Amino acid sequence: MSNQRLVHKVTQFTAGDIEGTYILGADGNVISFNPAEAFAIAKVDDDGDETSVHYYGYLRADGAWYIMQESKSGNETTYQYYTGASDFSTGWTNRATLGYSTFDAIF
Questions:
Q1: Tens of pLDDT along 18-60?
Q2: Alpha-carbon distance 82 to 63, whole Å?
Q3: How far is CA 24 from the centre of its chain?
Q4: More confident site: 53 or 10
Q5: 103: alpha, beta or left, given left = phi > 0 and alpha = psi -120 to 50?
Q6: Spatial CA neighbour of 57 closest among 85, 33, 81
Q7: How far is the C-alpha of 37 from the C-alpha of 34, rounded, in Å?
Q8: What backbone phi and psi angles, to 5 degrees, belong to 26?
Q9: For the segment 65-90, what is each residue's pLDDT rounded down to a tens digit?
Q10: Is-contact 87 98, C-beta < 8 A?
Q11: pLDDT confidence of 104, banded at 50, 70, 90?
Q12: Which of 27, 33, 50, 57 has the largest count of CB atoms under 10 Å?
């Protein structure tokens, strides 16, 4: 028996300020989902310190954006996110004080 799933449907969606794509299998279950696919890296704040916090800013053509906060502590790395619909410059300036949350909570 094959582990491959037949693609039944590719659907675009909008949830708040975020757009994305999900792919449904023939059984109706979601095979793939990536709400961040339309964004490109715009800024990086990485001071080279392996135990500190780093920021990565992503911007979409229509002005929507998100910042990913990477926190390193020992062997553990944690990623949290903050999104905005416009004014990336202000968000980036305030990146250290934004209310970050997990990917599933933001997207």
A1: 455 555 556 666 555 556 666 666 777 766 666 588 899 988 8
A2: 14
A3: 21
A4: 53
A5: alpha
A6: 81
A7: 6
A8: -60, -25
A9: 999 999 887 778 888 999 999 999 99
A10: no
A11: confident
A12: 57
Residue with tokens 């929507």: 64
If pLDDT is split at 50, 70 and 90, which confidence band does 107 have?
Answer: confident
pTM given for the model: 0.64
Closest CA to 98 of 53, 60, 63: 53
Instruction: Extract the tokens encoding 21.
Output: 């794509």
Write out the two tokens for 82. 């903050």
Listing DSSP states for 1-62 in one string gives ------EEEEEEEEETTEEEEEEEETTS-EEEEETTTT-EEEEEE--S-TTSEEEEEEE-TT
Amino acid at 4: Q
